[in-house]
Amino acid sequence: MKNRERRPGAKPFPGAKPKANGDAARPRPPKSADFAGKPSKPSSGQAAGKPERGNSRPVRRSPSEDGKVANTAETASEPARPLTVRTGERPSERVPLILESTGAGDFHLIDSGDGLKLEQYGPYRIVRPEAQALWPKALPSHVWDKADAVFTGDTDEDGMGRWRFPREALGETWPLSLLGIDFHGRFTAFRHVGVFPEQIAHWSWMKQKVEAADRPLKVLNLFGYTGVASLVAAAAGAEVTHVDASKKAIGWARENQSLSRLDKAPIRWICEDAMKFILREERRGNRYDIILTDPPKFGRGPNGEVWQLFDHLPLMLDICRELLAPKAVGLVLTAYSIRASFYSIHELMRETMRGKGGLVESGELVIREAGLDGKTPGRALSTSLFSRWVPK
Ligand SMILES: C[S@@+](CC[C@H](N)C(=O)[O-])C[C@H]1O[C@@H](n2cnc3c(N)ncnc32)[C@H](O)[C@@H]1O
């Protein structure tokens, strides 16, 4: 569904600043950029071509009379809404929780080492840089040398680079299937391939919750990229709202919807700044049973709105809490590419969910090597941090 309420020329999200410093150790895309191979400048419908590095300056809070605290990030011109002062007990906790996948469907991690990873995506073996693979490769070089596609280029993990196809020239896309969802793998300019398979752990959890429910659950997928999570939810019977700032990514998600034969599934595709969207949903009183939020460290909305994880995450989670339906099933946050431990998002989630009961479980999403046959467990490669609130 087209988002009819987007205001052209809207001002950048208050509290954002155009530039930041810091450093990162990330394996993630974007910036919602031109994923298809060209760098794009921030413009309507697309986000920045290259993410700025993370800024660890926290949002400062100052008490106000109505029990709220102001979002006083230094560059805030007009706070969109103050952070809520949460009282009551913090939810109980389970840490660390390591959610491990060895792959599923068409994906598995074959091997890793020496700063690289070798992955199987359907028919193709792909080599990509992997800064966390500090150990030596387990498989001999003749296995790695037979890769179908190799990403080379900028050592900055979100940087530009190019694909090399040592065996034969390959097209930009190819068919893939995960958890019963058919979609396109895609060689993009930022080393990404149109899916983040470590998310399988969250998607399997969500699928099981949606299938077990006695009513169609409402799922909100923020920063939804190519839509695989939205399609998993819809195929399981959920009513889905998918939000992403990149027109191009939404276009790919719609293509994936057709590939998965889910054209008639109840999915709203919304090209909008995630923060603006949730602020409006809060005002309208719309509520969701499951919220997935997978924000980049830095991104831009369709009208140049700036997303800075370290500046905006507290308010985003605060609003997401308000968007949870009375019988909500979960709020799942994943964070990539940030200089932080899972405890930072864990404690933020627990503070945000004070008085709500339930459990906050946090840790890392890891993918375990599975060898050439996809069945031989090897070393675990960490991909991201996550924190998940669930009712008890
Ligand atoms: C890390 S990817 C999400 C990956 C996705 N959850 C998955 O697992 O396939 C980040 C996405 O955030 C989008 N994005 C960046 N800034 C945004 C903003 N301000 N509002 C909404 N989406 C944004 C990008 O276009 C990109 O698709």
UniProtKB/TrEMBL annotation:
<feature type="region of interest" description="Disordered">
    <location>
        <begin position="1"/>
        <end position="95"/>
    </location>
</feature>
<feature type="domain" description="S-adenosylmethionine-dependent methyltransferase">
    <location>
        <begin position="172"/>
        <end position="302"/>
    </location>
</feature>
<dbReference type="GO" id="GO:0032259">
    <property type="term" value="P:methylation"/>
</dbReference>
<dbReference type="InterPro" id="IPR013780">
    <property type="entry name" value="Glyco_hydro_b"/>
</dbReference>
<keyword id="KW-0808">Transferase</keyword>
<dbReference type="GO" id="GO:0008168">
    <property type="term" value="F:methyltransferase activity"/>
</dbReference>
<feature type="compositionally biased region" description="Low complexity">
    <location>
        <begin position="10"/>
        <end position="22"/>
    </location>
</feature>
<keyword id="KW-0949">S-adenosyl-L-methionine</keyword>
<dbReference type="Pfam" id="PF10672">
    <property type="entry name" value="Methyltrans_SAM"/>
</dbReference>
<protein>
    <submittedName>
        <fullName>Class I SAM-dependent rRNA methyltransferase</fullName>
    </submittedName>
</protein>
<keyword id="KW-0489">Methyltransferase</keyword>
<dbReference type="InterPro" id="IPR019614">
    <property type="entry name" value="SAM-dep_methyl-trfase"/>
</dbReference>
<dbReference type="InterPro" id="IPR029063">
    <property type="entry name" value="SAM-dependent_MTases_sf"/>
</dbReference>
